[in-house]
Design brief:
With 370 residues, this protein is α+β, with helices and mostly antiparallel strands. It contains 6 helices and 13 strands. It folds into 2 domains: 21-182, TolB, N-terminal domain (Rossmann fold, 3-Layer(aba) Sandwich), CATH 3.40.50; 198-369, Porin (Beta Barrel), CATH 2.40.160. A hairpin with a 2-residue loop joins strand 7 (230-243) and strand 8.
Amino acid sequence: MMKRLCTALFLSLALTAAIGAQDRIAVLDTELPKGMDAKVVIPVTEKIMEEFVRSKLFTVLDRSFIARTLSELEFSTSDLTAGDTDKLATIGGFLKATYIVVSTVQLLDRTYFLSAKMIEVKSGVITAQSSVNRDGSIAVLIDMAGELGQKLVASAMGQEVKSGGRSATQLTAPSTTREPNAAKPDREPKTRSSRFSTASVDIGTGATVANYTSDNSNLFTFVEEDYDAIAGMSYGASCLFPSGLFYLSANGTMTTVEYDGSLAYITSEALNLGAGLGIDIPVGPVLLYTGIRAGYMSFYLYEEYSVSTYETTWTGFSLGWEAGADIRFGSLFAGVRYAIDSGTLADEENTYVDIDAAVGAISLRIGYAF
């Protein structure tokens, strides 16, 4: 009992896999000569499609879906040939079909000649070709289409069909002599957007500036006289999230600087936490961006003189600006960004006067792109 269940399960899985791997085929409307009754197009086309459906070897696209798609493309199949690789690629791309079947009717006196070609979209190669001819009225084309469909499917599988009948070998499995599925179905390539989000660690060079706002304080005399800007290291983390033309960013940056002069030793640490909004512009593989920033700034300063020391921390709201460029390498990226933030900050302990502080940095960004 268990053996039978396992066998049934195996066959079910195999059938499911086979169906999932079937090639998509589009049977286009049969082309008629001028003056012939167009009412015969649908039954003739449907008869050819019926044989491909009956074979269970292909995923056959619905005729109304094909007609609607071609109508939207404003495309006519009247001059389509196996060599029209551009037109085949256009139709196949929109229909996501691996093969296209085109058929035509010719009338010589009272003899109807119905022929069809099965064309591989990707290469433009004729995979199978068959024809049927018969005398009679226009209604005979319907029977001819059924016979033609049988012959075309058999030809695609490397089998032979006698006129007016089915092949001796049932068309339920691919022939060992020929496989139309040798070419995998065309898939639309996944295009990677030129805009991409990033998460990174940042390291670079920064500088701080601090100016007091009271003429009655001796604090920061060094800043006002000779040392407006002190350079040092900048490091932190940031993210950037493009959405169409605009982007949002988030950042956390620490800038540490030191100055050892003849009159004083000075060190400061500036912490910036904030978010940005701006415009991003892709230029080839590079994503350029620029925008404004806003957030929180904490500015710590320590001064040591020969006879005294000063130490305190100021905090407050900051505004700024940033600009940068990122380039993607698969799931990684590298970029450069310049940013500057400034604000009027208050002493946390209300011991010193407010200061106008500014922090700027140019940083290398390295991290994950998605």
